UniProtKB/TrEMBL annotation:
This is Pyruvate phosphate dikinase AMP/ATP-binding domain-containing protein. Residues 714-826 form the Alpha-glucan water dikinase phosphohistidine-like domain. The keyword Phosphoprotein does not apply. Homodimer. Residues 29-71, 156-266 form the Alpha-glucan water dikinase-like N-terminal Ig-like domain. SUPFAM superfamilies: Glutathione synthetase ATP-binding domain-like. The lineage of its organism: Eukaryota, Viridiplantae, Streptophyta, Embryophyta, Tracheophyta. Its cofactor is Mg(2+).
Length: 1136
């Protein structure tokens, strides 16, 4: 307690919850000593009076029968007070000055550790093996046993390890401990959670005492490498039991696992032994055994939060052993709890202090994983956010103690306040935060009871829920105006205690816990501006605080858990602040929207593992803002590319969450009887609870603004064909590519990757996805005269989906599609002549090629009988293109080689080696036999692609005889490209023959023609003005492919580039070496940032295309690369 000035008056400020900026406490420990530092910022307080209590032994300490008393010296407050925020060089009263740090300092990258969600984790730090580790190792080496499950429990500073092993077909439980005093094991077996069942006769070790519901067995002393330990072995039939509960006795002292029994879970053994036997799809893609264990223990867990958190603590190691899916299972369970899908308390009274201890134990275990396994930090953050911070006794106990003080001080000992007190006394829960807020709102509204119920109902608490508590709340508050002021003050303070336990992400309580450990002035600024209507400076301050906190989160600080909760709270406050700003941003300028988007991208990146792509998005937004401020006329086009890339990053993260979390939610939910509608939206709600949802909304607001400024319209027309057909809405083009529609069909498709085949009978494909205009699927759409377009307006796309089953007529313009509903009898008139009379397209004939007697040929031997058009065209270019255009050296494996090799045991490698070396190409075998094996595998993959699914559907569609399809292989040196390009010498979107259209990507061209997400840079160039290319769109592809000096083996069949049929991309081209995937930073790419360099490169690409078109005398589809500014053409074919 504190004395106010004058000495006669006492104040009961509940000092532990006075707002952070009025009273700050710092506790430090050194050995067996501890100190508590209290900072008081209230000049009215003259002294502090206190007593001490040892809660473990329930002992109170006084100063010779009196309270301890400390007098505060006059002027002490002023001397100790920190400098005002306005004088700090990084602050003003209105704004935080962001540090000019490199964005990449925020990088978090653990890709190599997290690619396999089922992979057991590898810990970062090493430690010396304990005697228990040595015991387990010796057990495995001597007996050849397989350890099926293992659990290590803390016994103060010592440990006990319980394990189950299979030794020569028998199951044995071994318990080993380094505890010094003699121990008795008090144990049983369990067929279900919470059960104690005495073991059957013959199972207990010799010398055991069999009791009614348990058994007692003594440990034996042992020694290993000079280290003492105690051990006990039990042989049993593990298939009959779920697990083994036990406690220990040393002399007359009982030892438990905190407040719970120890428990060795046999289901972990069952998971390992039955994994191969279980072919059921139920639980596929989950930590199935863990989820089933959780379901088995839920009956025990629903007794109270203490039970739930203690059970969760015991399962942390099992979850960790499984890997990411194990932690996903814990997250799903905790989210079910946090969202009230599970029972919180059932016929069990528990002290708040015990809940707090159990919660703290669980979060301590999660903190330990956070330190050790950085690849799981994002998942662990989400679990911690769902659980809350806990408080090791004192904070939880204050909930129980302070409500009595509040009732007594404000004369409200009966009615609703007493009913709430009884609930708090026996089982406090997150509902109490809402009840407290409802009471405060009720008093602030001048005791309007409707306001009380509004607050409760908005937060999901109904009269029925209040009445369902073990200690129900039936009454409404019935307070007087005389009670209002004091009760409001005390409940405001009490709310901090409730939030300290139940709202781990609550900002003020999180800051209070971390005082003295991080930037106090910055956090003070945040708290002072937390309710500002204009949130810009607040969000800046929050992000600066998160960035300053980041190095501590990556280190090994003592108070890591508290700092994680502070970071979670700062993240949550950014989200709510941005949501609060929506109305103010309705009429904001594009620059303001871009600035806010950059802030939210940074916030999402700070909460994300593997955030490299997001950080490059952030750099892109910053650069777009600079371009706009400089009135660069390309700013909107550039910003649109980064808007698309940011959307793609969010979609990728959403898909990742869905793949990891949704199967666990559905399986555990089915075991626990959770309602289906809750499970269906589980992952969606996880995403909506973070800043990604705010970011998506801001992107949706900016998109039409950018499209308007850049004159982009609502559509990109990839293949302009006027059509009519029945609307069918599907999720992915890939899932229907094997279908054949018997009526003209307009497919409205959510996802198109770029490598699919368009199904027979489809006349239009409309999608919000963004395949490149020159991707394989785009080329095949134009060849098949199918309308193919990307829709950028979600409202238009939604309207098209709602037209399913109707007949629409679609007429593409340059940047839009006009569509209208028509009657079925109009469809025949609107349909093309090919389909109006019911006639299908004529089939194509292939002449089977014969083996010419050579297994490898050089470019000067290429002919129609030996190789496909791809090889012949590249050979034709040699010596005919301008000198500044290079053509890679080529050799080939001619038609028939594959079929002949299958039936010939003779090794013909020598011929290929001679042809490659004779053409000046490196022979892979010169680098070792392994290199030739890599090349040979690549050749076989090209041959095998004759039977890929995509090619099969395409050839079937045109009735091409697959048996006559022959595959030659074009062998070329790979140019380690800076950029790759595809040219169509007639603009495919408009059909304009005077205009070249081209697309460019960074790295190899597979990201352009294959199924890689995002858009390439695109440009057009008039053939009569090749010095002036015009950029249509900047790149949004996040990935670039790069490769060292190597060889590529390209498919070259007799079924490609036939008249009226383009087989582009149906078959595979395979490099000998695997390409490296690199996440791209366009802000340091001269093609994007240097106008002169860009103009030079794009002009040269256009010139090369024009020269090749003139050489052939017809429109060409050309692929090539740029290396050190030089143009290389790797293939050309007639443009379809």
């Amino acid at each position: 307690m504190c004395h106010e000035e004058g000495g006669a008056n006492w104040s009961t400020p509940l000092v532990w919850i006075i707002p952070l900026l009025q009273l700050l406490c710092h506790e430090t420990m050194s050995g067996s000593n501890s100190t508590l530092k209290i900072e008081i910022d209230d000049p009215a307080l003259q002294s502090i009076e206190f007593v001490l209590v040892d809660e473990a032994q329930n002992k109170w300490f006084k100063n010779n029968g009196e309270n301890f008393l400390i007098h505060i010296r006059p002027g002490h407050h002023q001397a100790q007070h920190s400098a005002p925020a306005a004088t700090n060089q990084n602050f003003s009263s209105e704004r935080v000055t962001r540090k000019n740090r490199d964005v990449m300092q925020l990088l978090s990258k653990h890709t190599s550790s997290s690619t396999d969600v089922n992979k057991a984790p590898e810990a970062t730090p090493d430690r010396n093996p304990t005697v228990l580790d040595l015991f387990l190792k010796s057990l495995q080496e001597k007996n050849g046993c397989q350890v099926l499950c293992k659990k290590v429990f803390k016994l103060g500073e010592k440990e006990i390890m319980a394990s189950m092993s299979e030794v020569q077909g028998k199951f044995k439980v071994h318990l080993a401990t380094n505890h010094a005093e003699p121990l008795i094991l008090h144990w049983a077996l369990a067929k279900k959670a919470g059960e104690w069942k005495a073991p059957p006769p013959g199972v207990p070790p010799a010398g055991s005492t069999l009791l009614e519901l348990a058994c007692e067995s003594s440990f034996s002393d042992a020694e290993l490498d000079g280290l003492h330990y105690q051990v006990l072995e039990i042989e049993l039939d593990a298939d009959s039991y779920k697990g083994m509960p036990f406690v220990l006795r040393s002399n007359q002292t009982w030892i438990k696992n905190n407040t719970s029994d120890f428990y060795l879970d046999f289901s972990r053994r069952a998971a390992k032994t039955s994994e191969q036997k279980d072919s059921s799809d139920a639980g596929k893609g989950t930590a199935k055994a863990l989820l089933e264990t959780i379901a088995d223990l839920e009956g025990e867990a629903q007794k109270s939060f203490m039970h739930r958190f203690n059970i969760a603590s015991d399962l942390v190691e099992q979850a960790k052993d499984v890997g990411q899916l194990g932690l996903a299972g814990l997250l799903v369970w905790m989210r079910f709890m946090a969202t009230r899908q599970l029972i919180w308390n059932k016929n069990y009274n528990v002290k708040p202090r015990e809940i707090s201890q159990a919660q703290d134990r669980f979060t301590d275990n999660l903190e330990s994983l956070y330190r050790t396994y950085p690849q799981y930090r994002e998942m662990l953050r989400m679990i911690l956010a769902a659980v809350g911070r806990g408080g090791q006794g004192d904070v939880g106990q204050r909930i129980r103690d302070e409500i009595l003080v509040i009732q007594r001080n404000n004369n409200c000992m009966g009615g609703m306040m007493e009913e709430w007190h009884q609930k708090l006394h026996n089982n406090t829960s997150p509902d109490d935060v809402v009840i407290c807020q409802a009471l405060m709102d009720y008093m602030n509204s001048d005791l309007d009871i409707k306001v009380y119920w509004d607050t409760l109902n908005k937060n999901g608490i109904t009269k029925e829920r209040l009445a369902s508590y073990d200690h129900p709340i039936h009454s409404e508050p019935n307070l007087t105006r005389d009670q209002k002021e004091g009760l409001l003050r005390d409940l405001t303070n009490y709310m901090r205690s409730l939030k300290a336990v139940h709202s781990g992400a609550d900002l003020e309580s999180a800051i209070g816990t971390c005082t003295g450990y991080t930037s106090e002035e910055l956090l003070k600024f945040v708290l002072e501006h937390i309710e500002d209507k204009s949130v810009e400076s607040l969000v800046e301050g929050l992000l600066e605080a998160r960035a300053a906190l980041r190095p501590l989160l990556l280190g090994s600080t003592d108070r890591l858990k508290d700092l994680i909760f502070l970071d979670i709270a700062l993240d949550s406050t950014v989200r709510t602040a941005v949501e609060r700003s929506y109305e103010n941003l309705n009429n904001a300028s594009p620059e303001k929207l871009m600035y806010f988007i950059g802030l939210v991208v940074e916030n999402v990146a700070l909460s994300t593992d593997d955030n490299e792509d997001l950080l490059y998005c952030l750099k892109g937004w910053n650069h777009a803002l600079e371009m706009s401020n400089k009135s660069d006329n390309q700013w909107a086009l550039y910003a649109k590319a980064f808007l698309d890339r940011t959307r793609l990053a969010l979609a990728t993260k959403g898909e990742e969450y869905h793949n990891i979390l949704q199967p666990s939610a559905e399986y555990l939910g089915s075991l626990l009887g959770i309602e289906k509608w809750t499970l269906d939206i589980f992952t969606e709600e996880i995403i909506r609870s973070g800043s990604a949802a705010s970011l998506s909304l801001l992107l949706n607001r900016l998109d039409p603004v950018l499209r308007n400024v850049a004159n982009l319209g609502s559509w990109q027309i990839i293949s302009p064909v006027e059509v009519a057909g029945y609307v069918v809405a599907v999720d992915q083009l890939l899932t229907v590519q094997d279908q054949s529609y018997d009526k003209p069909t307009v497919l409205v498709v959510k996802g198109v990757k770029g490598e699919e085949e368009i199904p027979d009978g489809v006349v239009a494909v409309l999608t919000p996805d963004m395949p490149d205009v020159l991707s394989h699927v785009s080329v095949r759409a134009r060849n098949s005269k199918v309308l193919f377009a990307t829709c950028f307006d979600p409202n238009i796309f939604s309207e098209l989906q709602q037209n399913e089953g109707k007949v629409l007529s679609l007429k593409p313009g340059s940047v839009d599609i006009n569509y209208r509903e028509i009657a079925e009898n109009e469809l025949l008139v609107s349909s093309s002549p090919d389909t109006a009379d019911g006639q299908s397209a004529p089939s194509l004939s292939l002449v089977k090629k014969q083996f010419v007697g050579k297994y490898a040929i050089s470019a000067d031997e290429f002919s129609d009988e030996k190789v496909g058009a791809k090889s012949r065209n590249i050979a034709y270019l040699n010596g005919k293109v301008p000198s500044w255009v290079s053509v890679p050296t080529s050799v080939a494996l001619p038609f028939g080689t594959f079929e002949t090799v299958l039936s010939d045991t003779t090794n013909k490698v020598k011929e290929l080696k001679e042809k490659m070396q004779g053409s000046g190409m490196p022979w892979p075998g010169d680098e070792g036999e392994q290199r030739w094996e890599q090349a040979w595998m690549a050749i076989k993959k090209v041959w095998a692609s004759k039977w890929n699914e995509r090619a099969y559907f395409s050839t079937r569609k045109v009735k091409l005889d697959h048996a006559n399809l022959c595959m030659s292989v074009l062998v070329q040196e790979v140019v380690s490209a800076d950029y790759a390009f595809v040219i169509h010498t007639t603009n495919p979107s408009s059909g304009e023959s005077s205009e070249i259209y081209a697309e460019v990507v960074k790295g190899l061209g597979e990201t352009l023609v294959g199924a890689f997400p995002g858009r390439a840079m695109s440009f057009v160039c008039k053939k009569d003005n090749l010095d002036s290319p015009r950029v249509l769109g900047y790149p949004s592809k996040p990935i670039g492919l790069f490769i060292k000096k190597s060889v590529i083996f390209r498919s070259d069949s007799n079924g490609e580039d036939l008249e009226g049929y383009a087989g582009a991309g149906l078959y595979d081209s395979v490099p000998m070496d695997k390409e490296e995937e690199v996440i791209l930073d366009y802000t340091n790419d001269p093609l994007i940032t240097d106008c002169s360099f860009r103009n030079s490169i794009l002009s040269n690409i256009a010139r090369a295309g024009h020269a090749i078109e003139e050489l052939y005398g017809s429109p060409q589809d050309i692929e090539g690369v740029v290396k050190d500014g030089k143009i290389y053409v790797v293939q050309t074919r007639p443009q379809m």
